[in-house]
Design goal:
Elements: E1 4-8, E2 12-15, H1 20-31, E3 36-39, H2 50-63, E4 71-77, H3 84-92, E5 96-101, H4 121-130, E6 133-136, H5 150-165, E7 171-173, H6 179-187, E8 192-196, H7 199-202, H8 206-209, H9 226-236, E9 243-245, H10 254-257, H11 272-282, H12 289-301, E10 309-318, E11 323-325, E12 328-330, E13 338-343
Parallel strand pairs: 2-3, 3-4, 4-5, 5-6, 6-7, 7-8, 8-9
Antiparallel strand pairs: 1-10, 10-13, 11-12
Length: about 350
């Protein structure tokens, strides 16, 4: 039995820091584990230009604890009126690593998102030419489509068209939740990949609904049936370079999660690696963890792997019921549970 695992320092290829005091409070949790992170741009107002991206990056860098090396990788929030020239300049200047497609009103702070994917086809053409990665929140938002079917519907309505019209565009299908998405990504060429969150590897939709509404297990896209969870686990541990780590960590204070209309999002940053590693341990795939966490993402984005290493050891890690953030409580993923791994000091 493996009790100590040393890997290249991982990266988080999808997360939310928010801004202001909350951002300053959550950045250290990510920086202690990951060398880099793709930072989502759905602030209020969103990060829609290179100038806004540069300013947001500086605020994040100022929140990194002294003595820790961490690089935020910024994304541009696509809208119906995104300027392809500004996006291209931002990428050329090293401000933007990717651009994010949010269908309008698909998730938190996405009201300014894209109303019709075909409207941004000129932007996608420029991204394809410049080698800029497209990150996709893949859900339709029509009221007549069941919330559990929105990812599969998005594949048929939009993803197939994007891939067909822009065959050389690099696309990351983010936080996939269904067997449909796994099979779609596997069926595409090497320019299409996907991130998988820890929560979608651990829970199915029962975790939101059995025994009463469970707001701290609610995120978007929502967890699906058990068959989908098992498909995601198989993909994550497969060793395929198409699948890599993306926590989608999304901090919301307890006061806004436990309310009449709680926010979508799971704050998994504090124990992200321990959470993922529990899955790989259960699946007998510890030998595949470095590829998923540390190698596949950089290879897809065309970036070098991190030179540093991180060591995890088999040991009980008790996750607290709550943490303090901006003077209020926030509930971490796995609150009150004991995980079987910890980051070695």
């Amino acid at each position: 039995m493996t009790d100590i695992l040393t890997i290249r320092r991982p990266d988080d290829w999808h997360l939310h820091f928010r801004d202001g005091d909350i951002m300053r409070g959550v950045v250290p949790y990510t920086a202690r584990q990951f060398g880099r992170a793709i930072v989502m741009p759905n602030l209020s107002p969103p990060v829609t230009t290179a100038a806004l991206g540069k300013d947001y990056r500086a605020r994040i860098e100022a929140a990194v604890p002294a003595g820790i090396t961490f690089t935020p990788l910024m994304t541009c929030y696509l809208t119906d009126t995104t300027d392809p020239e500004d996006l291209a300049r931002g990428a050329a200047d090293g401000i933007f690593t990717a651009a994010k497609l949010y269908p309008a009103n698909a998730t938190t702070n996405s009201a300014h998102g894209v109303s019709d994917v075909t409207k941004i086809y000129p932007v996608l053409a420029r991204m394809e030419a410049e080698g800029i990665v497209l990150c996709v929140h893949g859900e339709v938002t029509d009221n007549d489509i069941d919330v559990f079917d929105r990812e599969a519907e998005f594949i048929e309505r939009h993803m197939r068209g994007i891939i067909a019209n822009f065959p050389d565009l690099k696309v990351v299908f983010e936080h996939i939740t269904t067997a449909d998405a796994v099979e779609f990504v596997k069926s595409c060429g090497p320019n299409v990949a996907a991130t998988i969150t820890p929560q979608h590897l651990h829970i199915n939709r029962n975790a939101m609904l059995v025994g009463g509404i469970q707001p701290h297990n609610y995120c978007l896209p929502v967890a699906k049936r058990e068959t989908h969870r098992l498909a995601l686990r198989a993909a994550a541990v497969s060793g395929s370079p198409k699948f890599f780590l993306g926590t989608d960590s999304a901090p919301h204070l307890r006061s806004v999660k436990e309310t009449s209309c709680g926010c979508a999002g799971i704050f998994n940053a504090p124990y992200a690696l321990e959470s993922y590693l529990a899955v790989f341990d259960e699946e007998g795939a510890l030998d595949q963890f470095e590829a998923f966490a540390s190698l596949n993402g950089p290879a897809f984005y065309g970036l070098p792997v991190n030179e540093e290493t991180i060591t995890l050891e088999r040991a009980e890690t008790a996750v607290p019921e709550t943490l303090m953030l901006t003077g209020e409580e926030i509930v971490p993923w796995h609150a009150g549970q004991t995980l079987g791994w910890r980051i070695a000091t």
